[in-house]
Amino acid sequence: MEAANLSVASTGVALRLGPAAFSSSPHPSGVVGSTPGGAAPPGREPPFSVFSMLVVTLLVLLIAATFLWNLLVLVTILRVRAFHRVPHNLVASTAVSDMLVAALVMPLSLVSELSAGRRWLLGRRLCHVWISFDVMCCTASIWNVAAIALDRYWTITRHLQYTLRARRRASVLMIALTWALSALIALAPLLFGWGEAYDARLQRCQVSQEPSYAVFSTCGAFYLPLGVVLFVYWKIYKAAKFRFGRRCRAVLPLPSTVQGKEAPQEAEMVCTARRPAAAFPPSGASWREQKEKRAAVMVGILIGVFVLCWTPFFLAELIGPLCACSLPPVWKSVFLWLGYSNSFFNPLIYTAFNKNYNSAFKSLFTKQR
C-alpha cells in the first residue's frame, strides 16, 4: 500500500513539472541519473551554436571598431592644430565618451552576455564600477550629441552674434555640464542609496530598478536631451527651409554708358523670398550657405541615428520598473547593444560631412609611413 501511494505521488509530481523537467543521463556506474530542465551536467557548458558564434564575432568587431575609430578621431583632433577650436572640442568630448563606452562598458557587457543565464560572476564591487561607467559614459555620449546640435543651431541662426569667442565659452560650458550631469545620474544610487545594482542571490548586475530612479535617470539621460535635439532640429529645418528655399536667378542690369562707351555688365543674383527681392553678388554667401546646408544635413542624420539607436532601450528601461514587468532577455540584449552601436555611428557621421577630417586622416597615415 505504501509503495502504491509513493508511486502515485511521484506520478503527480512528474505531471506538475511536465515532461521536460527531467532528462536521463548515463553515469559511469551504469546508474541512470537525472538533471533538471535537461541542462548539461555540472562542469560541462552547452556548446555554442553557429549563430551564437556569429553574433559574438560581430559584437567583438563592433567593440574594436568603435574604440579604434573614436581613438583615430581623438588623435587627429589633438595632432592637427587647426582642430584646436570649436566645434572640434565638442567632437573630441563625444569621441572620449564613445571610446570609454567601447573600452570600459561594452567588453564587460559581452562577458555578462556569454555567462550562463546572463549571470554576473565578477562580484559586487566590479558590478557597481561597471554600472556607474555604463550610465555615465552613455549619458555623456547622448548629451554631447545634443551639444553638437545646439552649436550647429546657433551657428546657422545667429552667425553674427555667435562669434568664435562666444562659441568657445558656450562649448566649454556645455562640456562641463554634460559630464557633471552624467556623473550625477550615474553615482546617484551609490551616493543616496537609490536602489541596488547587484543581486547576490540571483547573481544579477543591472541598473537600479527603483521606480523613482528609473524616471530620474531615463529623463535626465535620454528624454530631456531628446526633447532638446528634436526642438533644435525643428528650428534648424525652419531656418534652412527659409534660407535655402529662396529662388535665385542671374539677371543683367540695364546698360549704362560711361564717356560714350558701354560699361561692362556684371550679372547679379536676385533672390526672391517672403521679403522684397534683394540683389546679391554671384559669389556672395553661396559658400557659407553650402557649409550651413551640410551642417544641417549632418545634424539631421546624427539625430535620426541617435533616436533609432536609443529609443527602444530607454522605453524598456522606463516602462519595466513602473509596471513591474520585464522583457524577454533576448530583447533586452538587442536593445542594449543597439544603443551601444550609437557610439560607433557618431564618429562616422560627423567626419563624413567634414572634408577636413578626410584630408587629416590621409596626412596622419602618410606621416606614420
Q: Overview of this structure, please?
A:
This protein has 369 residues and is mostly helical. The longest helix has 38 residues, at 286-323. It is globular, with a radius of gyration of 30 Å. The chain has a three-stranded antiparallel beta sheet, with no helix packed on it. A hairpin with a 2-residue loop joins strand 6 (257-258) and strand 7. It is 66% helix and 8% strand. It has ten helices and nine strands. The protein starts with a helix and ends with a helix. The chain crosses the membrane at residues 49-78, 90-110, 130-150, 171-192, 212-234, 295-315, 335-353. Belongs to the G-protein coupled receptor 1 family. Keywords: Cell membrane, Disulfide bond, G-protein coupled receptor, Glycoprotein, Membrane, Receptor, Transducer, Transmembrane, Transmembrane helix. InterPro entries: 5HT5B_rcpt, 5HT_rcpt, GPCR_Rhodpsn.
